[in-house]
Specification:
By secondary structure, the protein is α+β, with helices and mostly antiparallel strands. It contains eight helices and 13 strands.
């Protein structure tokens, strides 16, 4: 079992006047802001190690012990957008370091400051720890799809038939009750003669520097998160794709342009026409977007991929 030296430490004791911190494997003393001596033996933590050894995930029971919350509360907070745990093929939740840090902060706000769940969400948003896109991107996408359909004077049935999806599914998308895969979003964008980029809320001008909390986010189906890194009058369309294990684009799609991608961590399996490639951390890939392609994360940990389209036709 490998201990992450860059995880903050957490001691249970008289540290209510400071924000709690933690060590992911055992509770130890050692924080300079904590004076009370604590035991070096803490709750047992079962690590789920990524195949490359650089991604550590925790199960919900271990997270509950570390942050001092019940699994029921954590699952409830997930519905509010406080966490985005990954899912295994068997649908078990896996929590990253970022998830645990956010829950640690939320637990502090609950226990020390006495805030309820909605107040915690608002506080984290004000602090920049929780972006509005976590709970707003689906609503924005649904409203945009409804607007595009009504502008054309079309019914749910006519659009659903044209893009080969069910009327119920399209209705749920427009009401922000479901999310669509990248392949389905691409078909809808093509039908409306738009790009997926038009589904983002990019009305305001882009600053030269885009901080992580300021990125435009689009959730594309279960386990695919696309974070737009630049927008406006650009000739490139750069994204950070965060892809959960076994999640992917769905069916093949194509569009005008060229694409470059660089795997920051994890793995990506991509098929371009009849050719198959398996990319790992540090690999880059370049291809023409007009060739039908689809992709999936075949690994056991979340994949992060820098993905650039040019021109912005995705």
């Amino acid at each position: 079992m490998r201990l992450r030296s860059d995880w903050p430490k957490y001691s249970q004791g008289s540290c209510a006047d400071v924000e709690p911190c933690y060590n992911p494997a055992r509770l130890v003393a050692g924080s300079h802001s904590c004076q009370e001596k604590t035991s070096s033996v803490g709750p047992r933590v079962d690590w789920v190690m990524a195949s490359e050894g650089n991604n550590d995930y925790l199960k919900i029971g271990d997270v509950a012990k570390l942050v001092g919350l019940s699994p029921t509360v954590i699952r409830m907070w997930e519905q509010l957008g406080l966490t985005r745990p990954q899912r295994t093929e068997s649908r078990y939740r896996l929590y990253s370091r970022e998830d645990v840090q956010l829950l640690k902060r939320a637990s502090f706000l609950r226990k020390v400051r006495g805030l309820n769940a909605p107040a915690i969400v608002q506080t984290l948003k004000r602090e920049g720890a929780l972006g509005a896109a976590r709970d707003g991107s689906a609503r924005a996408l649904g409203a945009r799809l409804r607007q595009l359909r009504r502008q054309r004077g079309e019914s749910l049935a006519s659009v659903a038939k044209a893009v080969d999806i069910s009327v119920g599914f399209l209705s749920a998308l427009e009401r922000s009750q479901m999310s669509a895969s990248v392949g389905t979003l691409r078909k809808l964008a093509r039908y409306y003669q738009h790009n997926i980029l038009d589904f983002y809320d990019t009305a305001e001008a882009q600053p030269r520097v885009v901080h992580p909390r300021e990125r435009k986010v689009l959730e594309a189906g279960d386990g695919v998160r696309m974070e737009l890194l630049a927008w406006g009058n650009t000739v490139m369309e750069p994204h950070l794709f965060r892809i959960a294990p076994r999640a992917g684009s769905g069916e093949s799609y194509s569009h005008v342009g060229e694409e470059f991608l660089f795997v920051l961590k994890g793995e990506l399996e991509i098929r371009v026409l009849d050719e198959h490639y398996r990319l790992r951390r540090g690999d880059s890939f370049y291809f023409e977007s007009a060739v039908p392609h689809h992709w999936i994360n075949p690994g056991k940990s979340e994949a992060w991929v820098l993905w650039v389209n040019t021109p912005p036709t995705f």
